[in-house]
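The records we work with from here on pair a chain with its fold. Taken together, the tokens spell out the fold as the letters spell out the chain. The record below shows the convention in full.
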Amino acid sequence: MRLEKESNQTRRSLVEDITRWIGLQVSSAAAKGAVVGMSGGLDSSVTALLCKRALGDKLLGLILPCHSHPLDQQHADVVAHRFDISAERIDLGPVFDLMLSTLPAGGELPVANLKARLRMMTLYYYSNRLDYLVVGSGNKSELMTGYFTKHGDGGVDILPLGRLLKTEVRELAQELGVPEEIRAKAPSAGLWSGQTDEGELGITYEELDRALQMVESGEKGEPDDESLSRVRELIEQSQHKRAPMPIYEP
């Protein structure tokens, strides 16, 4: 019981710290508020709720379906209504289709990345229009393995969850009261039918986070530890996503 109480206190303290940090980032940038994409997923829901605590009515949630699963939109609506978040819905499907009709066939990955970048373009349109910051929902598990789209979901102003592993975000979601149906569903970026994060990564988030902790601590794994080898490979291959833009220096 004591350990559970300490864990609850730690989560509450973390919520308070991140809430203060969001407010500080917005004020130090002389911005008027923040805009966040609400996908109906766990990370975006946690991010939106933290921003709501920090900014109150100076938060706009954007629900940006692009041939998305109807359930994801419903979940985004649930969070917006339950927690009194001002939200707008913009169907990007027609724009996405028009862009594809003018481009050569590119395969699954280029098409998926186009969706992510189209959503970010929309978020920044509203950001510029309102003088708001764009708040991203990426977590540490995704950042370290490169599981994000350059200039898409990776192209934001601030990342409140960027130091938290996915398993830690799940704990925060429970603390914040994110609905169970959102916490229980398989994480997905909704980039194509049946797409899931863990399916793409080839590893569960529990295995991923454990391997990331081993990499950071320098702990050695078993020689045949496939999870650890997979994670090291993902980190190495995605280094260019985390590094500053290379600039030629004569």
